Amino acid sequence: MTLLATFAIVVTLLMISIDGYNCKVVQFIFGDSLSDVGNNDRLSKSLARANLPWYGIDFGNGMPNGRFTNGRTVSDIIGDKMGLPRPPAFLDPSLTEDMILDNGVNFASGGGGILNETGGLFIQRFSLYKQIELFQGTQELIKAKLGTPAADKFFQESQYVVALGSNDFINNYLMPIYSDSWTYNDEGFIDYLMETLNAQLRVLHKLGARQLMVFGLGPMGCIPLQRVLSISGSGECQEKTNNLALAFNKAANNLLEDLSKSLPNASYRFGDGYDVVNNVIKNPSKYGFENSDSPCCSFGRIRPALTCVPASTLCKDRSKYLFWDEYHPSDSANELIADEIIKKLNFTRVNQNNSPTPAPTDAPSPN
């Protein structure tokens, strides 16, 4: 009787342990440099890495951590405010099955796109299809640990973020060295992107993704790099690029609405931050910014700098700049975008016991 009682207790504890993993909702993030938290830093041949100062100066210990900004990403901030744990990079050498169950995984890769051919100049990066392939491998690990029924439940209760698309334009379609630039016109290229994204989201649904959000594109034509490369040399926003972003957003929103209606138990939503960023660009002081057209980290008048390096000069107050480098928003901008998406989609906290991580304190410029 004692042996049977002991066995029953062990079985009960095991069941509680497995179910316990499902009590905590985690997220799986697929994206590009706007969401990368260290994957590209571990791709030794990648030319798109955020592994030098002053990346990460306002995050944690102030050292580079793989994020292509001075602080947090939009996904970081939305997750924090929803009570979701921050998922580690897939290539984090300390990643284990228990970490996945407790925190999820971030597959985002700088330079990656919806299309496999996007970002080829960066040599190494994970496209969305590759990220999904890595996610499939992750699922096999969890199934081996929990068993298929419990693993399926875990993945179906998780949250999913897909945040790609800008590289498909800036580092593909708008660059004449890529064949897509002369194979398609604007409408045809967006149709190509939507056909590909549709197939990818359907694969994620088969893999268990039920609660999923796709981030829209911002005014890509107004990032510092696009301004400095403007044909007119005026430094103004490139309207063609902005119009492509708007067309992409409209098509992606329609796609998600259709998928939510056609896929069983799917809640696929579109996070649109275009308008709020555009408003800051037009009237920065209204939103507490002082600069909305140039990077905080740069070589001064030597433009474009392309990346932020130790020899770069930093702006005096990083919290007042919309852009961190030639491509990427600052922590302050990311918080503005995150708050707008949370408000539009009426997000509420998922894990009540998780406290949101505070915004970084802006340290004095080292220059």
N-end to C-end Cα span: 73 Å
Strand order, largest beta sheet: 2-1-3-4-5
Topology pattern, helix = H, strand = E: HEHHEHHEHHHEHHEHEEEEH
Report low-confidence residues grouped into runs of 5 or more: 1-20, 362-367
Radius of gyration: 21 Å
The number of helical runs is: 12
The helix/strand class is: alpha/beta
Helix content: 40-55%
Bulk shape: globular
Key features?
single chain; 367 residues; alpha/beta; two-stranded parallel sheet; 9 strands; 10% strand; disordered C terminus
Describe this structure in words.
The chain has 367 residues and is an alpha/beta fold. It has helices spanning 2-22, 74-81, 97-103, 128-146, 148-157, 166-173, 180-183, 186-206, 224-228, 239-262, 274-282, 331-345, and strands spanning 27-31, 104-106, 159-163, 211-215, 267-271, 291-295, 297-298, 313-314, 321-323. Helix 2 packs across helix 12 (331-345), helix 4 (128-146) packs across helix 5 (148-157) and helix 8 runs parallel beside helix 10 (239-262). Residues 1-20 and 362-367 have low confidence and may be disordered.
Write the layout of secondary structure elements.
Blueprint: H1 2-22, E1 27-31, H2 74-81, H3 97-103, E2 104-106, H4 128-146, H5 148-157, E3 159-163, H6 166-173, H7 180-183, H8 186-206, E4 211-215, H9 224-228, H10 239-262, E5 267-271, H11 274-282, E6 291-295, E7 297-298, E8 313-314, E9 321-323, H12 331-345
Parallel strand pairs: 1-2, 1-3, 3-4, 4-5, 6-9
Antiparallel strand pairs: 7-8
